[in-house]
Amino acid sequence: MKILAATNNAHKLEELKTILRPHGVEVISAKEAGGVPEVVEDRDTFEGNAVKKALETAKAKNMIVFSDDSGLSVDALDGRPGVYSARYAGENATDTDRMNKLLGELKGKTSRKAKFVCVIALASPDGLIGTATGECHGSIGFEAKGNQGFGYDPLFIPDGYKETFAELGEDIKNSMSHRGNALKKALADGHFKF
Question: Does the active-site annotation cover 42?
């Protein structure tokens, strides 16, 4: 089975391929498909953005499409950065810029509880196939640690661990990540059986 991943994020693409390969799902990159349309993520929920991206891309490319919207939700910041996780420190900010902004906003806060949230959407040119949500709970460290992963991984310490996602490595992260949990739910719900 082949699906097109509506993402230009190389890290996310590799994570998807690694998680879905054992289930007989071949993930095709945007580059392999000759590009995907730029879809403005202007919805105020992860689900809204994921569904919009999946539907628009499936119609434009005439293929079954996987999309997701994900981000970090921090309790002490009333759920921020949320749907703005990638744009949290501005449009052209780096991962380091975003992590520094987050650490700055958490100064003086006693609660460091946070969760990663991912909503995936699968769509065909005929419409939405389904959605699934996954979460990974943990806390935000006081400094970036580790050199694996991407985004906020060097700050996020999953519940039950003392190391960040960036220290734990891909195998452990994929076994519990928000994206991995959303994919497991989508597989269990039969969304990948076309």
Answer: no
